[in-house]
Design goal:
Strand order of the largest sheet: 3-2-1-7-20
Oligomer: single chain
Bound molecules: flavin-adenine dinucleotide, NADP nicotinamide-adenine-dinucleotide phosphate
Strand content: 15-25%
Radius of gyration: 25 Å
Subcellular location: Endoplasmic reticulum membrane; Microsome membrane
Membrane topology: Single-pass membrane protein
Largest sheet: 5 strands, parallel
GO biological process, one term: lipid metabolic process
InterPro entries: FAD/NAD-bd_sf (IPR036188), Flavin_mOase (IPR000960), Flavin_mOase-like (IPR020946), Flavin_mOase_5 (IPR002257), FMO-like (IPR050346)
Number of helices: 17
EC number: 1.14.13.8, 1.6.3.1
Length: 539
Amino acid sequence: MARRVAIIGGGSSGLCAIKACLDEGLEPVCFERSRDIGGLWRFEEQPEEGRASIYRSVIINTSKEMMCFSDFPIPDDFPNYMHHSKIMEYFRMYARRFDLLRHIRFGTRVCRVSKRPDFAATGRWEVVTESEGKQESAVFDAVLVCTGHHTDAHLPLHAFPGIEKFKGRYLHSRDYKDPQDFKDKRVVVIGIGNSGSDLAVEISQTAKQVFLSTRRGAWILNRVGQQGYPIDIVFTTRLKALLKQLLTSSMASDFTERQLNMRFDHAHYGLKPKHRVFDQHPTVNDDLPNRIISGRVRVKPNVQEFTETSAIFEDGTREDIDAVIFATGYSFSFPFLEDYVKVVENQVSLYKYVFPVDLEKPTLAFIGYVQPLGAIMPISELQCRWATRVFKGLSTLPPRHDMEADIKHKKEEMAKYVASRRHTIQVDYIPYMDELACQLGVKPNLPLLFLTDPPLALEVLLGPCTPYQYRLRGPGAWRGARAAILTQRQRVVQPLQTRHVEENTSVSVLPLLRKLAVEQKTTLYFTTSLALLLVLQGW
Ligand code: FAD
Ligand code: NAP
């Protein structure tokens, strides 16, 4: 009989968890407390208790080729950066394509997960659920926790003296839906993460004045990168990751900060932080400088104190205000788990952010509890592919002390980010994906690819490190992966071509042929050198 896996949560992580179980011949039962799939990405005016909440206008800041599931490219005509409604459309297509819905029990909340008395021998769990006021209990061979980490608002009121006296309205960004309520108001937004900057921009269209308060400033990235390509398509390449390894971190930061300052000088705009660009989770906002230069958003330091009607900032300035929005981030916890995993100040000890190290059997895994410099969906998917292989005993975890050493090392690495509760589960996209891929045996073998399939190898190295790269070989290999990689740039450009434009075709034949001949020689030389370099680098 197939082993049964309980999946808690039917958001994007839960969906790919169901698919990974099915691919491995396991029997998934997914419990979703709300009435539908999508988790955070399903916008509702008043989302159910215990589900993450987004605003009406939210547009994702990871582009479609970088955020898709690895064997299901997002349709050609979908925009690169999708509105939440389009993201839901994609998730529904995915669920339909792989027939996932019949494995989900909607309206069912998991309230307790505990070890069975025979756990040391069987690794089994008892899962207690509640649906329409009725509790049920069932036994599972393994559990995948997919409840997300952007549900519980972090509202640090204690850090803001006087807020209890403030007569205006205050709320967390989680409860913000649209700018209507702030028309003609003077509003302070606290925090310059992606929520704070999105909200400041949106509210400033109709508010009397918006103040964006930040205690340390931020480097602001654009969604639209060089030549109009999505920024993650431009930056997330294996070649750049390799160069970043070769350069000192200060050189890499100098180069990137110079580029960002070429768009607008962060010091002139009051945004320049003391820390370097790679030391903080990126804030991506194309519109913020426009709102600042037009005076609709004014950047301010941290709020020192609130009075009944105003905010006093740390530079001593005072502004009369009507409303405060705390865009101060999120906390996460696992209230349904007995003390198996402790979360303290958003820190959790999991091997590669997936497995607890102190269980007799590795039958509990956590999916999506990372904060990547990139999209979460492909990461969750690869974590699920690995976890299900571990559940089946096809992949084994190292001894406990090795796992603890890895956790310790990762905690030390985290110190490269500025100390903040938002930097506790931070991962770099390519290194982390490769790390997971090595566990599973699906990391692309670049030297071999250069020798056997140079056009593909070049795109894998120089092009964006899209999730399809992790379907080229090993368990779960997908026959469409090569074609998906070689056509990814077309899928980026296609949705933009909504009006026919004549391209410049007046290239004479002779120089073109000469150019092609030179390119061929260069490609051969380049390919061989790269294969050698990669072998030397141990790829
Ligand atoms: P969720 O989407 O939160 O889904 C968790 C599900 O679990 C929910 O459906 C919930 O109802 C269910 N659940 C919870 N507890 C229980 C229980 N006890 N029993 C049963 N069901 C339960 N990520 C990106 O990659 N790119 C982005 O651009 C991006 N933008 C974001 C924008 C905002 C405003 C926010 C807040 C986050 C953003 N994120 C982004 C991160 C986001 O968390 C992920 O994109 C994604 O939603 C994570 O999916 P998930 O399935 O892990 O969690
Ligand atoms: P976040 O990234 O955790 O940012 C929180 C902000 O609040 C930071 O600037 C932080 O400053 C500040 N802050 C926290 N506590 C504070 C305090 N006590 N005093 C002053 N400032 C404080 O949270 P978020 O912006 O809500 O983002 C959450 C996740 O959603 C991220 O993954 C983000 O990328 C994603 N997101 C994406 C989009 C999009 O795709 N369009 C939109 C919104 C959010 P410090 O840095 O100093 O701690």
